[in-house]
Design a protein that fits this description.
620 residues, 14 helices, alpha+beta, single chain
Length: 620
């Protein structure tokens, strides 16, 4: 194919993709040409021999029933009628090489205002139990006078030359809109029934003099960065356990080196029998671009962001068939991308992941660094700093490899290998979802333990009657919010259910996080707000006489002073603060844990969950 054809106004919409997908030649660029139409739902996307490229906007998350500001951004579909593969060197030689000028550029939200937003989110959202982390967007805006096809291709060429480490580098021209970007992160990939996700979090901003092993090691030792990555691994494992027939396995961590920054990342792998469009729908959208839990993060995004997100934090999705007729899906997250309309108005949205230890000034700097790769391709801002090290890269330094290996040692072994489920379940558990899909991970661990599992949301019609009639184990699961807020309909319903189950259920009752707090409150223990939220905190505790390393995601806690235990209840607590880590009845009829046994942060979580459900805690 002659690439000069793309410059002709008679040429149909097109996409040029350089994909670093395993098994592909990374030095090849795919060219797709074909008409673009709009679809209403992901289920409407065609899966056929010639590839289909979907531009999935953030508002599509409404298909999961989540709150989202509807800005009208279309689910656009390029159904390829022509598809070519061209060597990268040939593409670079053929693409326009002129400079593209952006006028009037700047962020829509000033640095000071964004920093103030960071402070409010930490205090009012994370500090009040609404979630573990949130991603809040700001957008670099400018204008390209006379913008046209040649400019779009010139920007793509500059990205190909100037960015490294991207998963996809791409330009998509739909006729009235152009997306050009270099996304570092897999949204979801599926081939041969294997599903892969790629949580990336933690951002090492290269110093002005260039990256060094010493400054990288300081970054890898930063508690905030470590917790940030662990939280998004947990959040994407929730999705993997939803779409994967056998849960998921965690690979990594690894270092992803790019031109202006580096990220830490994991890879999650699972097996799924779902249609690729269902996989795409159930994985909208990554915690790395929303926050966790995702459903409540969508509400927080609505409260703090002006306007809709457009395609930012959505996905490109390439759907097709392999030579054997099996479905394939390859999808990057739409970040580090310039969105340019037909009038040349340019937007580059970026966001920072806000956690309890976030520094407002640092998060402001992170948004600048994330925009820098695309802006440098646009000729805005400085070029990437030259590395101050010699050799293949920072990840080859033995000290860096050791630091990454140490992070892996802090993850639960259960999630580091694929788990087999028994052929014949030995019981049937009901898991009540308090609006946090940690319950998908709980369900997977319970199934591996030999149980059939039913998960039902707290607001499902008929849940109360089903729970009261249930004869097997019941798990009251986690969820966001203040457990002591009697004005919250969710808390009223779950508190009432906890009371009824404590009084009557004999099949085994376990509360996890929010569920634990509600059980503790019904037993007469006071609920208090913690001085500092423990969102994504890995801590060593005394659990009924045994030392355990566990993961907490809580802003509220029950408290019990020595000698204040409810009758017939044993309490594991912090000896200084009196915060209740766990409780269990002397009869073995119920138990509760403030931590998350299903989290990657709880080293013996699978064993603890089995022991708690059977009412027996193994000796240390």
């Amino acid at each position: 194919m002659n690439l000069s054809r793309l410059l002709d106004d008679s040429c149909p919409p097109f996409a040029l993709l350089r994909r670093r997908t395993p098994g592909r030649d990374h030095d090849t660029v795919e060219v797709l040409l074909g008409p673009v139409h709009e679809a209403a739902r992901l289920a409407d996307l065609p899966v056929r021999e010639l590839p289909t490229l979907a531009l999935v906007p953030f508002r599509q998350i409404r298909e999961r029933g989540f709150d989202v500001r509807d800005d009208g951004t279309p689910l656009s579909v390029l159904a390829a009628e022509e598809a070519y593969e061209i060597p990268l060197a040939e593409v670079l030689a053929a693409l326009p090489a002129h400079a593209v000028r952006v006028d009037g550029g700047g962020f829509d939200v000033p640095d000071e205002e964004y920093a103030a937003t960071v402070e409010r989110v930490i205090e009012d959202e994370i500090g009040r139990g609404e979630g573990a982390n949130f991603v809040i967007r700001r957008t670099y805006e400018g204008r390209i006078d006379g913008f046209g096809r040649a400019d779009a291709l010139a920007l793509f060429r500059r990205l190909l030359e100037g960015e490294r480490g991207a998963y996809w580098t791409y330009v998509v021209h739909t006729g009235d809109r152009t997306l050009v970007g270099a996304s570092p992160e897999v949204h979801v990939r599926m081939s041969g029934r294997t599903v892969v996700m790629n949580p990336i979090s933690g951002t090492y901003r290269y110093p002005a003099g260039g990256p060094t092993a010493q400054s990288l090691l300081a970054f890898l030792g930063d508690r905030k960065e470590t917790e940030e990555l662990s939280m998004v691994v947990d959040e994407e494992l929730k999705m993997m356990c939803t779409v994967g027939d056998m849960g998921g396995v965690v690979v990594g961590p690894r270092l992803k080196e790019m031109s202006h920054l580096a990220h830490t990342e994991y890879e999650l792998r699972g097996r799924s029998s779902l249609d690729v469009r269902e996989v795409l729908r159930e994985t909208m959208f990554a915690a790395t671009v929303t926050g966790s839990p995702v459903q409540n993060a969508c509400r927080v995004i609505e409260r703090y962001e002006a306007g809709g997100r457009g395609y930012y934090a959505g996905a490109l999705a390439l759907l097709g068939l392999d030579p054997a007729g099996g479905q394939t899906l390859d999808s990057p997250i739409l970040i580090r991308t310039a969105d340019i309309d037909g009038d040349g108005v340019l937007r580059v949205p970026v966001g920072a992941t806000l956690v309890r230890h976030s520094d407002p000034a640092g998060e402001v700097a992170e948004t600048h660094a994330k925009a820098a790769g695309v802006l440098a391709a646009l000729g805005v801002g400085p070029a990437a700093p030259r590395p101050a090290f010699e050799g293949a890269g920072l990840a080859d330094d033995p000290r860096v490899r050791a630091a990454l290996a140490a992070r892996r040692a802090d993850l639960a072994p259960f999630w580091l290998r694929m788990q087999e489920r028994p052929a014949a379940p030995a019981g049937h558990a009901l898991v009540v979802d308090g609006e946090d899909t940690f319950t998908a991970m709980l369900a997977h661990v319970l199934r591996v333990a030999g149980l059939e599992v039913t998960v039902r949301r707290y607001d499902d019609a008929g849940l109360r009657a089903a729970a009261l009639a249930w004869e097997g184990p019941i798990v009251l699961g986690p969820g966001p919010g203040n457990p002591a807020d009697t004005a919250d309909p969710k808390m009223r319903m779950l508190r009432g259910l906890a009371a009824e189950l404590l009084a009557s259920h004999r099949g085994g009752l376990l509360g996890v996080c929010l569920g634990h707090e509600l059980l503790a409150a019904e037993l007469g223990l006071p609920l208090v707000r913690k001085a500092e939220p423990a969102q994504g905190a890995q801590t060593r505790i005394d659990l009924f006489g045994a030392a355990e390393v566990v993961g907490f995601y809580n802003t509220y806690t029950a408290r019990c002073e020595a000698g204040g235990e409810p009758a017939g209840v044993e309490v594991a607590r912090d000896p200084v603060t009196g915060e209740v880590h766990a409780l269990r009845s002397a009869s073995g009829r119920f138990a509760g844990v403030q931590f998350h046994p299903e989290s990657v942060l709880t080293l013996r979580g699978a064993e603890l969950l089995r022991e708690l459900l059977t009412g027996v805690t193994a000796p240390a």
